[in-house]
Write the structure tokens for this entry.
Amino acid sequence: MSDRTERAFAPEPREPSRRRFMIAGEHVILRAFERDDIERCYRWMNDPNIVRTLKSRYPIAFQNEIDWLERAMRVSDDERHFAIERRDDRTHIGNASIHDIDWVSRTAAFGLFIGEPSAWNRGFGSDAIATLVRFAFEEMNLRKLHINVFDYNDRAKHVLETHGFVQEGRLQKEFYREGAFHDIVILSVFRHAEEKPQ
Ligand SMILES: CC(C)(COP(=O)(O)OP(=O)(O)OC[C@H]1O[C@@H](n2cnc3c(N)ncnc32)[C@H](O)[C@@H]1OP(=O)(O)O)[C@@H](O)C(=O)NCCC(=O)NCCS
């Protein structure tokens, strides 16, 4: 796979271990989307194991996914989208987005999934969350992030709590799926702990 998202003009990073990529974690990098990501995105957005954790309900047509990807590749003031790649073999394993960015309040929402089943439970999701949060705080200068997660998504809640997210709210019986109404929990993290209400 080519290194087409690397930038020769990127500022010299503080840590030598991050030198090769613009946004790098320990095990993953976050890069811009490219047109040839479409097949994977289409497959993941039609995988019931992934869709179960998202608000999406209906099968996604290939053209819908092309439209989404075209949007994700455009520069936008209030959202940014990233492909998650493994650092070791540069395979595309998932997607991440920061959205609803409020540049005055310096807050945003985000979402993320590891779509490739072979990459689940191997630490990539955790590293992708840590990398995305660090980028949002240190490079985008945001001060607070939140994410909405289905209450039944124990794995996501566990990983987010590991990274300092706390439950800030709960939308009771908000979403109907598989014959029942489910709560959605709102988890958030502040850049500076002293901002967090006690
Ligand atoms: C949530 C998600 C990103 C985690 O990625 P991942 O690469 O599979 O997860 P990791 O390997 O980094 O970490 C898994 C952790 O969850 C734990 N875990 C796994 N299944 C669990 C469960 N049912 N309940 C609680 N914890 C669970 C593991 O033990 C591990 O914890 P540890 O690091 O403390 O040992 C991934 O599962 C995913 O993409 N899910 C679908 C999308 C989603 O839920 N998005 C919500 C936003 S995070």
In short: Residues 50, 53, 112-114, 120-126, 147, 149, 153-156, 158-160, 162 surround coenzyme A (CB under 6 Å). Residues 16-143 form a domain with the Aminopeptidase fold (CATH 3.40.630.30). The longest strand covers residues 166-177.
